[in-house]
């Protein structure tokens, strides 16, 4: 395993070296950093030219200059200076967290949703849902990200902020949204016409009821889940996760998941206390670990044999319930948050990565603020990757479902759930890990544009500056960071790959 | 929970129907037939063709000595007075396009409105779309040619040639295309759109070359290649006459993907200011100029975007149709009528 990873890492480092060499030379020959100075009539221009040449080593030809640059990086991580004499590493250090936040969230959302929709699309090949999803995926592929971003700003941010003034949903919107929900669920179900209409009626009616309820109770002015609804959602999550993970026939797993839901409810008020008095990243990490421990304990109590899948189910349920609890807390924070002077009733921002006017020190305010600032850019960025993952996972699953081992699995009488989740789904994930890398390059490109549209001070801004100032050191710094991220994503994909497919490790050993 | 119910309607596809359909047909005929059956691809082909015809015939064109007068009355440099009648108060240059079939249907004087200095926005959008389509084709052709050559050489000759070429491909593939594009675009953008597209095409071939290499690696082991070798065919002849025609499906499909990626790359670069530069016009450049006027004059923002989506979407759908057409394993939905006919044939056979 380690040998395999070592080999992969070496290969990636070689690639990193080669691509940075190509980019350095390409950038160096495509322009001249002294061009602006040469035209100037300032008498001091000669001295400036000389000093610029000396600091940027312009008297050395580009291929050799690359090695000077590389040498400095190896000896003390020095990225050199920008043209205005600012150390590149300081600029990068400020920009990295912002960009990582954006890329990471968008990638995770795109992978989870893309896989889910792609798999359902494949299982329902040639259904209305499949056709609809294919069209939506192609449409997202074809959308220019900067164009979508402007639409998002207008129709999600500004309209939602306006909506918060009245908080009641217009009847027209309720009807439209219920229709969309009805069509969505009806398109998922295959069957005769009567059944489709029944599903359409139930889903549409339920959505209309829910939306009316939210509107009448003015829920959006002071949102929250509350313990009762939380219990309902947790039990729903327990059944859903058990169904996907082990099947409802596995009683110990179902009992464990249900116990997790009950424990989640019992801990609701203690959690509120902890959140209010010791909110922080460490608290959340601690609670997550505690959830995992409780999951292990509960599964040990209910299952005497074959504990693995039961523990998995319990922990997954616990994580979902934990996320629901945190969402509930964030929703409770929403009302005081929008009433602060910094927000003044318009919570969804269209620009920048955080609100500097916000009173500092309140963890939940900062958390909610970060999330709200991430809201639009993440949607814009996730759209394209989402389309890629939908198409790819659909194609792979269709291919896998044609394999002989699927027929064997069915022939020995496994349920369709086991066939799909254990035999088909796992094998779908294997080739999927390889496109994460390709997708990552695309998402970095998307991030550069997204940051520009939303005015974030991240890598994208630095990149724009590097190109228009012809700042080679800055450009290489940006490239170094993005490609290191890509290498890390690659390595994570490799790890996943070898975890999913034992054959890879065998090849690595030989 | 019926989500895992087996989808019988597509699963039980009689091999008979598929086999009988392709009996006695050449590869080309099978592919053409499959493509024509892909409704989305055919519609997209018609849409793309119409759009191109519409876009390129609208404005004056000069090709060498041939001068073609466009059917649209304004060019991108005309600056007629800004029209204010019929516009909301305080706003000039609103669009006159009317698509209400019962009312005043027609283009009007300025169908997409006018920009800040009175230029006709329809002419500008047409010019931008021309530029985008041009860039798309140049990048597709250049990228396709280089990718096929590199992939064919490394897949056919293998050994150190393969290693060197594929390492080089890996180097380029890890640099995000927007970074390479910006570096090139910012410094070569002023050479004019065709040159910009040419330079961008020089870096757009990596994915294609990997696929072509894979295809060549598997095809060169096949019996017909051995047969050609035994018959004394030269490497050149084997590559061009025997292997390449068999790999053409993969090449065509990836070239359409390169093209749909190219149009988005060009608009993104122009949006960032590293692609097509003023005084030339590009759809991305138009959006970048007028994104702030979205709340007041939304038409300046909508129309360029709609043209980008129209072109990119139809190219994507055509690519999907081609992929289905070239894929020998593809399964097709068998309609109820065909199934009934199939059952009848089976019943007859039993009698």
Please give the order of strands in the largest beta sheet of chain B: 1-2
State the end-to-end CA separation of chain A.
11 Å
Shape assignment of chain A: globular
Most residues in contact: chain pair? A-B, 59 and 55 residues
What is the strand content of chain A? under 5%
GO biological process, one term (chain B): transmembrane transport
Organism (chain B): freshwater metagenome
Protein name (chain B): Oligopeptide transport system permease protein OppC
Pfam families (chain B): BPD_transp_1, OppC_N
Index terms:
heterodimer, A: mainly alpha, 0% strand, B: 351 residues, mainly alpha, MetI-like fold, 2 domains, 14 helices, 2 strands
Can you walk me through this structure?
The complex is a heterodimer of chains A (510) and B (351). Chain A is mostly helical and 510 residues long. Among the domains of chain A are: 93-167 and 218-442, no CATH class; 168-217, no CATH class. Chain A contains 20 helices and no strands. Chain A has helices at 2-29, 35-38, 45-56, 62-74, 88-123, 128-141, 145-166, 171-188, 193-216, 226-245, 251-266, 268-278, 281-302, 307-339, 363-401, 404-411, 416-454, 459-469, 472-500, 502-509. In chain A, helix 5 (88-123) packs antiparallel against helix 6 (128-141) and helix 16 (404-411) crosses helix 17. Chain A is globular, with a radius of gyration of 27 Å. Chain B has 351 residues and is mainly alpha-helical. Helix content of chain B is 65%, strand content 2%. Chain B has helices spanning 8-11, 15-22, 27-37, 39-58, 121-157, 159-173, 177-188, 193-201, 206-219, 223-230, 235-272, 283-290, 299-326, 336-350; strands spanning 61-63, 66-68. In chain B, strand 1 and strand 2 form a beta hairpin. Classes of the chains: A mainly alpha (510), B mainly alpha (351). The interface between A and B is large, with 59 and 55 residues.
């Amino acid at each position: 395993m380690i040998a395999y990873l070592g080999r992969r890492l070496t290969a990636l480092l070689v690639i990193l070296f080669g691509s940075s060499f190509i980019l350095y030379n390409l950038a160096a020959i495509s322009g001249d950093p002294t061009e602006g100075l040469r035209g100037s009539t300032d008498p001091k221009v000669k001295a400036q030219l000389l000093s610029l040449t000396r600091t940027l080593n312009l008297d050395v030809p580009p291929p050799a200059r690359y090695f000077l640059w590389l040498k400095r990086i190896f000896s003390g991580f020095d990225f050199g200076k920008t043209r205005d004499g600012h150390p590149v590493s300081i600029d990068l250090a400020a920009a990295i967290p912002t960009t990582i936040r954006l890329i990471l969230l968008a990638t995770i959302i795109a992978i989870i949703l893309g896989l889910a929709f792609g798999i359902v699309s494949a299982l329902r090949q040639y259904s209305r849902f499949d056709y609809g999803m294919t069209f939506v995926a192609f449409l997202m592929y074809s959308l220019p990200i900067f164009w979508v971003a402007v639409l998002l700003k207008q129709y999600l941010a500004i309209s939602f902020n306006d909506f918060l003034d009245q908080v009641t949903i217009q009847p027209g919107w309720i009807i439209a949204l219920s229709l969309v929900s009805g069509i969505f669920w009806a398109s998922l179900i295959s069957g005769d016409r009567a059944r489709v209409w029944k599903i359409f009626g139930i889903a549409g009616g339920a959505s209309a009821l829910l939306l009316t309820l939210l509107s009448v109770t003015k829920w959006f002015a002071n949102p929250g889940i509350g313990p009762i609804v939380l219990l309902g959602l947790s039990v729903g999550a327990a059944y859903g996760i058990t169904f996907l993970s082990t099947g409802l026939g596995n009683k110990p797993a179902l009992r464990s998941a249900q116990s997790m839901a009950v424990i989640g409810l019992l801990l609701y008020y203690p959690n509120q206390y902890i959140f209010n008095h010791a909110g922080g990243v460490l608290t959340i990490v601690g609670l997550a670990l505690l959830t995992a421990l409780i999951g292990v304990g509960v599964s040990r109590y209910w299952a005497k044999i074959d504990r693995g899948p039961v523990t998995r189910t319990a922990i997954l349920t616990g994580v979902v319930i934990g996320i629901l609890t945190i969402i509930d807390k964030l929703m409770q924070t929403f009302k005081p948050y929008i009433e602060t002077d910094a927000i003044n009733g318009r919570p969804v921002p269209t620009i920048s990565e955080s609100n500097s006017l916000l009173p500092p020190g309140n963890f939940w305010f900062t958390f909610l603020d970060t999330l709200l600032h991430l809201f639009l850019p993440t949607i814009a960025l996730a759209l394209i990757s989402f389309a890629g993952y939908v198409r790819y996972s659909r194609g792979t699953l269709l291919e896998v479902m044609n394999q002989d081992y699927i027929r064997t699995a069915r022939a020995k009488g496994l349920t369709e759930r086991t066939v799909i989740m254990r035999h088909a789904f796992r094998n779908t994930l294997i080739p999927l890990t390889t496109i994460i890398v390709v997708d990552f390059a695309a998402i970095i490109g998307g991030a550069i544009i997204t940051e520009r549209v939303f005015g974030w001070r991240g890598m994208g801004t630095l990149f724009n500056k590097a190109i228009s100032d012809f700042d080679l050191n800055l450009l290489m710094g940006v490239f170094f960071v993005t490609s290191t991220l890509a290498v890390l994503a690659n390595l994570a994909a490799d790890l996943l790959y070898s975890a999913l497919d034992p054959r890879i490790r065998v090849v690595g050993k030989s | 929970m019926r989500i895992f119910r087996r989808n019988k309607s597509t699963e039980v596809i009689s091999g008979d129907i598929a086999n009988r359909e392709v009996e006695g047909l050449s590869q080309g005929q099978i592919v053409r037939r499959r493509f024509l059956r892909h409704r989305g691809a055919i519609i997209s082909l018609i849409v793309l063709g119409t759009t191109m015809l519409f876009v390129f015939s609208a404005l004056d064109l000069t090709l060498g000595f041939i001068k073609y007068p466009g059917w649209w009355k304004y060019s991108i440099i005309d600056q007629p007075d800004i029209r204010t009648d019929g516009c909301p108060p305080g706003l000039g240059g609103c669009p006159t396009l009317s698509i209400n079939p019962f009312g005043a249907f027609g283009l009007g004087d300025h169908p997409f409105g006018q920009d800040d200095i009175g230029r006709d926005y329809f002419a500008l959008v047409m010019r931008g779309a021309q530029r985008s389509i041009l860039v798309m084709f140049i990048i597709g052709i250049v990228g396709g040619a280089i990718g096929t050559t590199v992939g064919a050489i490394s897949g056919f000759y293998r050994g150190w040639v393969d290693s060197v070429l594929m390492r080089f491909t890996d180097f380029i593939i890890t640099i995000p295309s927007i970074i390479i594009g910006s570096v090139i675009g910012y410094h070569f953008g002023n050479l004019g759109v065709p040159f910009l597209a040419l330079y961008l095409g020089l870096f757009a071939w990596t994915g294609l070359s990997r696929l072509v290499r894979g295809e060549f690696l598997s095809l060169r082991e096949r019996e017909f290649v051995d047969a050609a070798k035994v018959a004394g065919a030269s490497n050149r002849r084997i590559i061009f006459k025997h292997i390449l025609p068999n790999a053409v499906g993969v090449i065509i499909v990836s070239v359409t993907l390169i093209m749909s990626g190219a149009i988005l790359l060009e608009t993104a670069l122009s949006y960032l200011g590293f692609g097509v530069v003023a005084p030339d016009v590009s759809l991305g450049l138009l959006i970048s100029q007028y994104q702030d006027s979205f709340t007041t004059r939304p038409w300046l923002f909508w129309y360029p975007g709609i043209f980008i989506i129209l072109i990119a979407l139809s190219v994507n759908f055509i690519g999907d149709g081609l992929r289905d057409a070239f894929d020998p394993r593809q399964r097709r939905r068998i309609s109820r009528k065909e199934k009934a006919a199939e059952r009848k044939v089976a019943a007859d056979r039993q009698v």
